[in-house]
Design brief:
Length: 346
């Protein structure tokens, strides 16, 4: 008879096989494709000697008011999001390194409308949050279990384990100033806020402040909910600056010197700005009058927030706040309740 240790070692592999078979069954049903996922050209294009395909499946990704039908392909170090084009062909929409990803359950802050918590969870990567809605509670649990396990394992292989992160405090006191913190790969945005407040000597909690990301990839600053990993966001920009062939590596050893400073190209830089939540809400309403709405924002209360046409790198250092904006001649603060636009406008 097998020992207890042997049975424990064999159990994960049995679970893996069962989950993989279930996922493939759902995948084939959803895509009407009888072929094995490993034979898919998109999957083949990501295969390499140090990467293994794990499972795939159909999912709905919801952000704000938008719902998209997508297909997920999970590898040992990578998640690939694709759109089904035919029975066996998929169009790549995005890909994310697992070491830079996160999961959460604050679905109400990411998408509009009701979402079944039994079949959904928040899935994110720099700098995106979306609600992943699966066809069954069983499929949701399978994906959540594998993602959390793989994310944890890839973070254990991260190099370095901590990096210096510059936090700019804006609208805190009478002037703007900054602090550089040592942030690890498991520190959340809320953890970083608390560390920044302590270093800056400011009284308050993570509920009183928001951490924003000003990224060269985005045309407007991006507010973090609190569960994201600033380390992963920063490292994603650094890794994207690496030579081709090492970009997707979880822990490239070349990450030294200028790669850990601000000496990156403008489009690959990112800044972290700490702002009081109440002032950030005013900024959201003000910028509504300056730029049209796009559905990419991940937080419903920020869904209509867009920044000015130019990047706010310099604005982040400004010591003044913009005045509240207007909509149809009325102050936004007069027509909005709890920082939300009226339903007719939505």
């Amino acid at each position: 008879m097998k020992s207890l240790a042997q049975r424990r070692q064999s159990a994960p592999s049995l679970i893996f096989v069962k989950a993989l078979n279930r996922s493939r069954s759902v995948s084939r049903e959803g895509c009407f494709s009888p072929i094995s996922p490993e034979a898919c050209p998109l999957v083949q294009s990501f295969m390499c000697h140090n990467r293994t395909f794990i499972l795939d499946g159909h999912v709905q990704l919801k952000t704000g008011l938008q719902t998209q039908e997508r297909h997920l392909f999970l590898f040992t170090d990578l998640l690939v999001v694709a759109k089904s084009k035919s029975h066996s062909h998929f169009k790549l929409k995005c890909q994310a390194r697992l070491c830079e990803m996160w999961t959460a359950f604050c679905t109400e802050e990411v998408c509009e409308g009701s979402t079944d918590p039994e079949r959904s969870f928040v899935l994110g990567w720099p700098t995106t949050n979306c609600v992943a809605n699966f066809r069954s509670a069983e499929q949701k649990e399978t994906w959540l279990s594998f993602l959390q396990s793989r994310i944890r394992e890839e973070k254990e292989k991260d190099y370095p384990k901590s990096i210096p992160l510059k936090i700019i405090a804006k609208d805190v006191g009478t002037c703007a100033y900054s602090k550089t913190l040592s942030v690890t790969n498991i520190d959340t945005a809320n953890d970083v806020i608390l560390m920044a407040l302590q270093q800056l000597g400011i009284n308050g909690s993570e509920k009183d402040y928001k951490l924003w990301v000003i990224s060269g990839r985005e045309d407007a600053p991006y507010p973090l909910i609190g569960h994201e990993y600033p380390f992963g966001i920063k490292m994603s920009h650094i890794r994207d600056a690496m030579p081709h062939g090492s970009k997707h590596c979880a822990c490239p050893r070349q990450l030294q010197g200028s790669f850990l400073t601000e000496q990156l190209p403008q489009e690959l830089q990112c800044q972290f700005v700490l702002k009081p939540s109440r002032l950030a809400a005013c900024q959201q309403l003000n910028d509504l009058s300056q730029k049209s709405f796009k559905r990419k924002r991940s937080i419903i209360n920020w869904a209509f927030w867009r920044g000015p046409g130019t990047h706010l790198d310099n604005a982040a250092l400004s010591s003044t706040s913009a005045a509240p904006g207007k909509l149809f001649g009325l102050l936004l603060t007069a027509i909005c309740e709890d920082d939300n636009l009226p339903k007719p406008l939505l």
